[in-house]
Amino acid sequence: MAFRLRPPRYLVPVIVACALFMENMDATVIATALPTIARDFGESALALNLAITCYLLSLGIFLPLSGWLADRLGARTVFTSAIVVFTVGSIGCSTVESLPQLVLARVFQGMGGAMMVPVGRLVVLRTIPKAELVSAMAYLTVPALIGPVIGPPLGGFIVTYFSWRWIFLINIPVGVLGLALALRFIPNVREPRREPLDGLGFGIASLGLAGAMFGFENVGRGILSNEVTAALIAGGIVFLALYAWHARRVTAPILDVALLRVQTFRASVIGGFVFRIGIGALPFLTPLMLQLGFGLSPFASGMITFSGAAGAITMKLTAAPILRALGFRSVLLANTAVCASSIACYGFFRPSTPHALIIGVLLVGGFFRSLQFTSLNTLAYAEIDPRHMSRATTLSSVGQQLSLSFGVGLGALLLHATLVFHGRAELGATDFSPAYFAIAAISLLSLLFFAPLPRDAGAEISGRRGELSPAIATASSTHPSV
């Protein structure tokens, strides 16, 4: 039997998912390589943290611009350009010989990363029929969960047995393949109506996002003084508040906060923000607990945490049937409770806990968190006018990035508070429990935003029986959401 390629509508989510996996993994793989790079450059490991923070600053600055560029130049043009920029930035990172050179290369790389996520999601939204959107979004959810888990152990393996430069060079084949497939299979959809660039709003929003993300990422780490960290966060919040005031006074804001008036989008963005705070803290807290608290090696720790990624992969096969049977509201309500409970379970782990039990909890938690992300990422666009899809993906991506940064900062702050409370300088196995319990409780608060959703929220996308009329079902299966 001759081999045949799947239709392009199935290939598009896979192509975008591969690019997102590259970006998500690269954001974390560098962490374990920093001490080695510091020795090569004759710098302190603390100074090398600039390689991470400057990447985050670049994300914060250029994220708001992604939707406007996609409408102006075409989604495929911006997406493929983002892959090229990210890949070239990776090559640059692999060839640097000093810290200033690495910082410049990471800033350039961050420009590509900022465009890749929201525009990649926009490509899927504009090419996949609504009836198939749940399955398509499941592809995009997996990289966000697997990348942060695989990154640290992979970085440790490469640094141990090869050169640290290979942590950047591994992006090249993925980037080249993604570029070739994107040019072949992704249509260059753009909006016929071109809005002027909100330059002032772009400047205000970028300053706010960069300050808030940079500040939250450095909470409790001792890299910056408490005064500087507080000033960054406060300044970021002030600029974001100023932007909210500005956005109400222009016709085409760079970040359209008016979209939050749509109930399903508001529940996904704001409720998802609260829920993701806990998820953002997990990649920071769990490796520390396993290594510092339980005394495991980085490789052993990575192999255990990888079970969460395995759970996320299995969700891909079940998301659509679950949402079709239960609907978005029921899934979000029940799944939030399950996910928060699984996070709280981490707080009961001890060095004597069997590894099989830890792996089992992480496996189950990874499955349900992936289901939650797929539900949130799909429901967000259920009632968005196709003309506003680019604005919606940009605003949603900004919220997700902020929540993950806030989660890392909150996790670090909770650990620091626990040490201060007990009067200790070194973390022990039991010091992680309060942090896990706190972030589980915060994630549970997202129920306040999911509960008001109507029972038939997103029925056109989920296809739940009894909530989707035959006319809508026929229309959604034959007409793409463009």
Can you put this structure into words, describing what you see?
The radius of gyration is 22 Å and the shape is globular. The longest helix has about 35 residues, at about 390-420. The chain is mainly α and about 475 residues long. About 75% of the residues lie in helices and about 0% in strands. Helix 13 (about 265-295) packs antiparallel against helix 17 (about 355-380) and helix 14 crosses helix 17 (about 355-380). Residues about 1-5 and about 465-480 have low confidence and may be disordered. The chain has helices spanning about 10-30, 35-40, 45-50, 50-60, 65-75, 75-95, 100-125, 135-160, 165-170, 170-185, 200-215, 225-245, 265-295, 300-315, 320-325, 330-345, 355-380, 390-420, 435-445, 445-450, 460, 470-480. It folds into three domains: about 5-190, Up-down Bundle (Growth Hormone, Chain: A), CATH 1.20.1250; about 200-255; about 255-480, Growth Hormone, Chain: A, CATH 1.20.1250.20. The chain contains 22 helices and no strands. Keywords: Cell membrane, Membrane, Transmembrane, Transmembrane helix, Transport. GO terms for molecular function: transmembrane transporter activity. It is a multi-pass membrane protein. It comes from Eiseniibacteriota bacterium. It holds the Pfam family MFS_1.
